[in-house]
């Protein structure tokens, strides 16, 4: 059984370092008795979705390496009002 909170913290930490990402949401659910993650990255305006996808996939592969198994992940990259209103300064 996959602990979604742990996955959320690990993936948010890894992806949140990217300056083109305003925030990351990770949710978990079960499909046909298999744990699945949905990762939504809120991208800044002008961010390259192709590069974001590569960065997210790298973080997911790292996560899979830690687990020792492959977890199905649905990746969603969005942009909108939330990302437009976010400041460019981030406190880490």
Could you describe the 3D structure shown?
13% of the residues are buried. It contains 3 helices and 3 strands, in the order αββαβα. Helix 1 crosses helix 2 (49-67). The protein is globular, with a radius of gyration of 13 Å. The longest helix has 19 residues, at 49-67. It has a 3-stranded mixed sheet with strand order 1-2-3, with helices on one face. Helix 2 (49-67) links the parallel strand 2 (34-43) and strand 3. Residues 87-92 have low confidence and may be disordered. With 92 residues, it is α+β, with helices and mostly antiparallel strands.
Write the layout of secondary structure elements.
Elements: H1 4-16, E1 21-31, E2 34-43, H2 49-67, E3 73-78, H3 81-85
Parallel strand pairs: 2-3
Antiparallel strand pairs: 1-2
Helix pairs in contact: 1-2
Which properties best describe this structure?
92 residues, alpha+beta, 40% helix, disordered C terminus, 29% strand, single chain, 3 helices
Structure summarized in a few sentences:
The chain has 92 residues and is of the alpha+beta class. Helix content is 40%, strand content 29%.
Overall geometry comes to globular
Mean pLDDT across all residues, rounded? Answer: 82
Q: How many β-strand runs?
A: 3
Give the ordered list of helices and strands.
HEEHEH
Main sheet properties: 3 strands, mixed
**Lateral arrangement of strands in the main beta sheet:** 1-2-3
Measured between the Cα atoms of the first and last residue, the distance is: 30 Å
List unreliable stretches of 5+ residues.
Answer: 87-92
- Tell me the Rg in angstroms: 13 Å
Beta-strand content: 25-35%
Give me the number of helical elements.
Answer: 3
Helix content: 40-55%
Structural class by helix and strand composition: alpha+beta
